[in-house]
Amino acid sequence: MQINGIEFSMQRVEGGSFMMGATLDQTDKDTYTDKPAHLVFLSPYYIATTEVTVQLWRALMPEREIINPEGYPTVPVSYVSWFDCQEFVRRLDSITGLPFRLPTEAEWEYAARGGAKSKAYRFAGGNEADSVGWTYPCSGDWKHPVGRKQPNELGLYDMTGNVSEWCQDIYGPYTLSTQPDPCGADTGSYRIVRGGSYDECVANSHLSVRRWHLPETATEYIGFRVALTLPNDPMQQIQQEEEPPLIRSIRIKSKKLRFVYVPAEQPYYISEEVECSLWKKMMQKDPPDRCKSIALGMNKSDRTRFAEYCSRSAKEALLVASAEQIVLAEQQHIIEAYQPNVSHKKESIRSIQRKRRVADKLSPLTELVGVRLPKPDDPVLLQFKQADDESRPLRLVIPVR
Predict the structure, then answer these.
(1) Peptide bond before 287: cis, by omega within 30 degrees of 0?
(2) pLDDT tens per residue across span 217-234
């Protein structure tokens, strides 16, 4: 496509679904604003393969001169506000007759992840930020001409680094609900900015990171790219079943057990922690251990048998939650991570910590004479037997088919 002699290209993104936000490939450096991860359905659309450049901006907005300290015509334009971007796409519409716009936040993230071709990279096109984008310090703290780094799975450039990019949406917190073609909050003062920039470090440039600014903001590190939905393009939206409720309550032997929906490739409901009273009612015996009435210490066979008894009572297929299912729900902040009650062991833990400090101080001296003092176990690790599920509270799951 040519605009006043300046070429730029658009890439079609087929409609599909994806988990948006703090997914497992992103969670080693997640922020509270990208949680919880949630399921999104998108219709097909087109998105520019590169950010809008200085020369393309000047071709459409000659009277609106912008700052370009690098001097290159093919660096991404910056010092443009969200309102400036709206005027740019309005003029682009009038010339082409096509309804250009800014991408929605969901469209931006889906495209950056590689759409249906995604390989679950942490950055747009790979797991090494320097190979796919200009971030600090490899950027030298300045913008670079577009398209010089490796593209992502869809052939899109610079969706990690170079300049951050305005999106159409008003900023709002994520929710767990499944969303078709989301377009942000209904009201608010701030607009979404995505993608990291040349002055941001690698740790702050992964694909789920969200930023927001007032729409009149115009800084050196924010630019944009355009998107487009063709009027005659069939929606091709994935046929969705009726959206599952977020919470279910299952009655087991006159007691209610609460389950919360966990969106995933194979979604499921996960229960609250099983209490001693329900365990005793089903198993006719007390659990081996308890912590604030939570049943603890049961072996694997007893847990499996408990799930079978509950399934018969509830007339519903209930399974023991696996460690992976529990961790996924914790990472999405759907359930709270288990913290053992150690208050009754406070004195013994202090004693262990004291012994560890003494051992740390003496070890350089003792090793000189060939003696190594045994170091007490870490007091925190003593509370968790990670290889032993018996140390964790019991949760049940209901698979969503």
Answers:
(1) no
(2) 999 999 999 999 887 665
Two structure tokens written together for 144: 């670079």
pLDDT at 294 over 50: yes
Tell whether 48 and 170 lie within a shared domain: yes
pLDDT higher than 70, residue 343: no
DSSP H helical ranges for 218-322? 276-283, 300-314
Q: With cut-offs at 50, 70 and 90, classify the pLDDT of residue 290.
A: low
Are 185 and 169 in contact by the 8 Å Cβ rule? The answer is yes
Q: Same structural domain for residues 30 and 177?
A: yes
Is pLDDT of 400 > 90? Answer: no
Q: What is the pLDDT of residue 302?
A: 92
Residue 356: the pLDDT is 65
Q: Which domain holds residue 314?
A: 247-340+385-399
Identify each DSSP E strand in 171-239 by its residue range.
179-180, 191-194, 211-213, 222-223, 227-228
- State the Cα–Cα distance between residues 233 and 251, nearest whole angstrom: 47
- E-state strands within 171-275: 179-180, 191-194, 211-213, 222-223, 227-228, 247-252, 255-262, 268-271
Indicate if 256 and 393 belong to the same structural domain. yes
Average pLDDT over residues 73-101: 94
pLDDT at 358: 72
Average pLDDT of the chain to the nearest whole number: 84
**Gyration radius (Cα) of the chain, Å:** 27
Q: Which of 171, 199, 228 is the last residue of a domain?
A: 228
Query: How many structural domains compose the chain?
Result: 3
SS3 state at 397: strand
Q: What are 14's two structure tokens?
A: 């087929």
SS3 assignment, position 341? coil
> Which residue, among 212, 243, 190, 235, has the nearest Cα to 39 in the 3D structure?
243
**Residue 194, pLDDT score:** 96
Same domain, 281 and 157: no
d(CA 162, CA 48): 15
Last residue in a domain, options 201, 228, 255: 228
119 and 81 fall within a common domain: yes
Q: Is 326 exposed, middle or buried (0-12, 13-18, 19+ CB in 10 A)?
A: buried
At residue 385, the pLDDT reads: 39
Q: 352: which 2 tokens?
A: 């262990």
